[in-house]
């Protein structure tokens, strides 16, 4: 029997330290909900999870961009719908002004409304969405994925010749009304084309938004499998390590008591 070196106590202390470390790690996993408390838990998994986190955040940003572009399109279509109604009324006035039973005084009254509606359309051409022109005809590149890919959203130009020619017409005379009718019909055809294009843009962006939502969901699921703790499994480990720590503490106390029996040999 020896006193200076208690190998049983040294071994018990080492095993207790290991059990205590595992217990602390299990407790950290349960309290954080993540099994990657530190990179040493799974170095490769931590690296992959970090990249997935970044990709998820970029996907969220791209989804926000797409949804904002959809709102831009909806705003465009709302204005174009009103432009279409105004042009419908202008075509009606153009035809009414050609009535042979109407005098030029009557046509002057029609022309007042016609000109007011034309000014209304001209005013809409200057509208903006958060500082971005809605109707200057410029194509906007919408970011549609986490890698920065873009979709060129075709613009609408309310300052185009089809519109300006119609809004610049008048119905003060029968001849002018006939010309105005032709111009307004061309503008109606143009607004129909523009609304169709806006609708096509909206459909494209809606599909992209749905795609990004599915991608984000799958990325989150993949990341969860890497870093999220299995609570049922970890609870079992926690109970096991807790028992080992308690048993190790008791055994270390017993191992430290063994050398005391040597004192009996000295009595």
The protein's oligomeric status is single chain
Number of domains: 2
Largest sheet: 2 strands, antiparallel
Alpha-beta content class = mainly alpha
CATH architecture of the largest domain: Up-down Bundle
CATH superfamily of the largest domain: f41 fragment of flagellin, N-terminal domain
End-to-end C-alpha gap: 15 Å
Fold-level CATH name of the largest domain: f41 fragment of flagellin, N-terminal domain
Helix-strand pattern: HHHEEEEHHHH
Q: How large is the count of helical segments? A: 7
Q: Which strands sit side by side, in order, in the main sheet?
A: 1-2
Q: Low-confidence parts lasting 5 or more residues at pLDDT below 50? A: none
Determine and state the CATH class of the largest domain: Mainly Alpha
Shape: rod-shaped
Mean pLDDT score: 89
Q: Approximately what portion of the residues adopt beta-strand conformation?
A: under 5%
Report on this model:
The protein is about 75% helix and about 5% strand. With about 270 residues, the chain is mostly helical. The protein folds into 2 domains: about 5-35 and about 230-265; about 45-225, Up-down Bundle (f41 fragment of flagellin, N-terminal domain), CATH 1.20.1330. Helix 1 (about 5-30) packs antiparallel against helix 6 (about 230-255) and helix 2 (about 45-95) runs antiparallel to helix 3 (about 105-125). The protein is rod-shaped, with a radius of gyration of 39 Å. The model has no long low-confidence stretch (mean pLDDT about 90).
């Amino acid at each position: 029997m020896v006193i200076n070196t208690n190998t049983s106590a040294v071994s018990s202390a080492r095993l207790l330290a290991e059990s205590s470390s595992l217990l602390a790690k299990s407790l950290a996993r349960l309290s954080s909900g993540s099994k990657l408390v530190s990179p040493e838990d799974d170095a490769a998994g931590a690296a992959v999870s970090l990249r997935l986190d970044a990709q998820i955040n970029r996907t969220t940003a791209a989804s926000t961009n797409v949804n904002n572009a959809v709102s831009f399109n909806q705003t465009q279509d709302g204005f174009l719908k009103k432009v279409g109604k105004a042009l419908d009324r202008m075509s009606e006035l153009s035809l009414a002004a050609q009535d042979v039973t109407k005098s030029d005084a009557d046509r002057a009254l029609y022309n007042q409304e016609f000109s007011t509606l034309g000014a209304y359309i001209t005013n809409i051409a200057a509208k903006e969405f958060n500082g971005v022109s809605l109707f200057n005809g410029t194509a906007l590149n919408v970011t549609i994925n986490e890698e920065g890919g873009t979709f060129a959203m075709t613009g609408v130009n309310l300052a185009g010749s089809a519109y300006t020619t119609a809004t610049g017409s008048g119905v003060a005379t029968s001849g002018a009304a006939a010309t105005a009718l032709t111009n307004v019909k061309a503008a109606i055809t143009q607004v129909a084309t523009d609304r169709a294009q806006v609708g096509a843009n909206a459909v494209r962006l809606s599909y992209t938004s749905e795609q990004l939502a599915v991608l984000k969901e799958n990325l989150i699921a993949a990341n969860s499998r890497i870093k999220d703790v299995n609570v049922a499994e970890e609870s079992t480990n926690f109970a096991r390590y807790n028992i080992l720590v308690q048993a190790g503490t008791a055994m270390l106390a017993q191992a430290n008591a063994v050398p005391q029996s040597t004192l009996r040999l000295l009595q």
